[in-house]
């Protein structure tokens, strides 16, 4: 090890070998730092997206395993609220409808919720116009996403009512009176929310739960039971308790499971970038191999001296194999340190800004979130690359020793 370290740090006989050695180490450093930074940026974007979705997604959602609705929502809620760690559970109804305002119309997703549904999540914080209100002494109201508000050209201070139509689930359609096949209701708009996530903003409208039940012809059913946990509750323990209490006829999902597709897409992008940078790191190791090959040729005299001192071929090969590991290790540790420093600086100061108008963006700088598992995976990749380098170095060394032995 000492000889390998001395060979690495000492000045080489030829200037070209010195330059190639520096380039080899720098290649590993830059590749490793890039891996840390890119993975951390993807983590930042994922955390940003999921943080936004978590503002409206329930902590735990309960749906029926078979069919569209939970048959007796009230009995399910009673069973769930009896579980330790559950602060509150409410029924919701979500289905497709047609919204019409004056001459404008569009298909929307209606979500019927209790009047105080804003106590279940952070929807108050994303109201951009008006207030959260579903009912008062005069009328019932809706809270619309930015998409329906723009398409229908409606605002909270408008006096007109939005008409809602949903097809009847039961009975026959009278061809002579096609409108009789629809149930309809009207509602004022009290507020507009904007989460800046298309899955919510594009077509979602919140309405009172009783209105949704009348419109979609439900009585005690609910399409989903949403659960809010106590602040000190363990999510996994509560989910296990709910699943045990309700049985196999119900699915219990946390926010990650509810947004499985969004998580999957972000993770695919993250690991595709990881594979591309890993390929660059493998390419960078060719510089390490070439450095070791030149060093082996340069150290012919030293090899002969080591042989004269009694070192066998295996011990001599181990010196240069260890040198390859040292180059990779020094580059990896330095790259990780630089990558972490850059990520911390970006978190603190936001030096790298996103292109576009800051007024129209959620954030102005690239979000960064360091996960230690990514650091471990990066180091494991570099270790695997170092193993590849050592194997190639051992092969080169064996050939070189056989040539010097035959002279």
Structural class: alpha+beta
Number of strands: 10
Question: What is the overall silhouette?
Answer: elongated
Separate helix tally: 12
Low-confidence runs of at least 5 consecutive residues: none
What percentage of the residues does DSSP assign to strands (E)? Answer: 15-25%
Order of helices and strands: HHEHEEEEHEEHEHEHEHHHHH
- Mean pLDDT across the residues is 83
Q: Largest beta sheet: what is the strand line-up?
A: 2-3-8-5-7-6
Taking the sheet with the most strands, its summary is: 6 strands, mixed, barrel
The end-to-end span amounts to 28 Å
The value of Rg in angstroms is 32 Å
Helix share, percent? 40-55%
Explained architecture:
There is one protein chain. By secondary structure, this protein is of the alpha+beta class. Helix content is 52%, strand content 18%. β2 (86-101) and β3 (104-113) form a beta hairpin. The longest helix is centred in the first third of the chain and has 40 residues, at 15-54. It is elongated, with a radius of gyration of 32 Å.
Write out key terms for the chains shown.
407 residues; 6-stranded mixed barrel; 12 helices
What does this entry show, briefly?
The chain has twelve helices and ten strands. The protein has 407 residues and is α+β, with helices and mostly antiparallel strands. It has a six-stranded mixed barrel.
């Amino acid at each position: 090890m000492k000889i390998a370290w001395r060979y690495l740090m000492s000045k080489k006989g030829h200037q070209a070998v010195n330059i190639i050695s520096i380039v080899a180490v720098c290649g590993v450093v830059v590749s490793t730092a890039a891996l840390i930074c890119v993975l951390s940026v993807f983590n930042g974007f994922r955390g940003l997206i999921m943080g936004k979705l978590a503002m409206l997604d329930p902590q735990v959602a309960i749906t029926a395993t078979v069919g569209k609705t939970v048959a007796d929502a009230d009995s399910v809620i009673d069973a769930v609220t009896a579980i330790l760690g559950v602060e509150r559970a409410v029924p919701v109804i979500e289905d497709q409808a047609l919204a019409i305002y004056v001459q404008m119309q569009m298909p929307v997703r209606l979500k019927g919720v209790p009047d105080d549904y804003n106590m279940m999540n952070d929807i108050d914080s994303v109201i951009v116009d008006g207030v959260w209100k579903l009912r008062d002494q005069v009328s019932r109201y809706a809270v619309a996403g930015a998409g329906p508000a723009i398409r229908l050209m409606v605002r909270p201070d408008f006096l007109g009512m939005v008409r809602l139509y949903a097809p009847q689930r039961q009975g026959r359609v009278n061809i002579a009176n096609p409108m009789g096949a629809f149930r309809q209701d009207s509602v004022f708009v009290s507020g507009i929310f904007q989460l800046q996530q298309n899955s919510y903003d594009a077509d979602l409208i919140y309405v009172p739960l009783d209105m949704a039940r009348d419109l979609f012809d439900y009585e005690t059913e609910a399409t989903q039971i949403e659960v809010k946990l106590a602040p000190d509750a363990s999510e996994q323990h509560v989910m296990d308790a709910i699943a045990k209490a309700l049985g196999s006829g119900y699915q219990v999902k946390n926010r990650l499971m509810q947004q499985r597709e969004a998580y999957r897409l972000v993770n695919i992008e993250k690991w595709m970038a990881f594979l591309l940078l890993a390929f660059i790191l493998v390419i960078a190791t060719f510089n390490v191999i070439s450095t070791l090959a030149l060093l082996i040729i340069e150290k012919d005299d030293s090899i002969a001296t080591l042989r004269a001192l009694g070192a066998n071929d295996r011990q001599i090969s181990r010196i240069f194999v260890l040198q390859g590991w040292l180059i990779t290790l020094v580059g990896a540790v330095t790259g990780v340190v630089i990558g972490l420093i850059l990520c911390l600086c970006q978190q603190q100061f936001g030096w790298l800004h996103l292109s576009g108008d800051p007024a129209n963006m959620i954030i102005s700088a690239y979000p960064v979130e360091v996960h230690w598992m990514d650091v471990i995976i990066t180091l494991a990749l570099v270790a695997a690359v170092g193993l590849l380098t050592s194997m190639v170095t051992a092969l080169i060394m064996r050939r070189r020793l056989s040539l010097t032995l035959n002279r």
